[in-house]
Amino acid sequence: MDFGLIGAGRIGNLRANALSQLPGAKLVAISDLDPRRSEQIARSSSAKICRSVNELLVLNEIEAVIVSTPPPDHEATVLAALAASKHVLCEKPLSNSVAACERMVQGAAKADKILTTGFNHRYFPAVRFLKKTIDEGEIGRLNHIRAFAGHEGLSQFGAAWEYDKKVIGGGALMDVGLHLIDLTTYLLGDVREVSGVTSNRILNLSETEDNAFALLRNTSGAVASLHASWTEWKGYHFYIEAYGDKGMAKMFYGPMMNMVVTKQPNNKRRRRFRFYPMVTIREKLFGWQSTVIETFRQELSDFANLCRVGRGGCIADGRAGLRAVAIANAVYDSSSHGRPITLSES
User: Fold this and answer.
1) Can you list the domains of the chain with their CATH numbers?
2) Which pTM does this prediction carry?
3) pLDDT single digits (tens) 50-70
4) How many Cβ atoms from other residues are within 10 Å of residue 210's Cβ?
5) Which residues, including other chains, have CB under 8 Å from residue 163's CB and lie 6 or more apart?
6) Sign of the alpha-carbon dihedral angle for 113, 119, 121, 122
């Protein structure tokens, strides 16, 4: 499958690396406001450097584009790509507003093209195992989920726009928290009610929360509690715990691992662990970026299959991207007004 890459920054570089490892995929062209970033990627591929998005989109050989620009540019870029009859994989957040996300989803339907959202955490092996454990009923009927994602704060960002609410649409919740929202809804199912509280008392960023706490409830009454943080002084941590009437299952990163606890007939508990030593070794040698590249490779493989034969594995579609942003905004509304928010069924 022939790809175009729009946005050649840090994530664009990782996407290009993942594409180079995907059999049957070819990076045809790159567009970025800074030609030097395009040149850096082009040196390791035969991709053409385009001076504008339009110059890239008129190339007939390109079947799909990856959009890895800052969020305010997503809507116009994605809609232009769809209008040019290209399938699109857009980085998260799909956009920085619910209305923009809705227009993008509608644009994909109108163009009859695939739109997906870059929620690569679905491809963590520990997340895959957690999903399988729940689906196979090992912990029984799902009752509640606890989830957390956090890092040390502003030192982890490469540019000021990455923590600017006007650009990304929020703070910690729209950053690390958006992966939590996507994975929680992926595991929990349809979410109907949202409550939340946000805080910016530590980093004191204007209108941008450094911590967000949310409760999500689905139509059957199962509940998820989420915490997204930019003040996790211990360093980056990410975990999801799922509790059922027969036990619990957990995924954790980093390091990558799973734990499953099940109730036995004699009322004792059985505890087992699953570790991923090759992931740990690879990250020791090549950094955390190596895990991102591998999840991108798997995600792009599912994306290509979805575009070609209509089977996309566990990839997040455009509606998943819209749903995540809608839930994040419902948390903000709940925090502002002090009441739960009921989501629409669309």
Assistant:
1) 2-120 (3.40.50.720), 122-286+317-342 (3.30.360.10)
2) 0.95
3) 999 999 999 999 999 999 999
4) 22
5) 154, 157, 171, 175, 205, 208, 230
6) negative
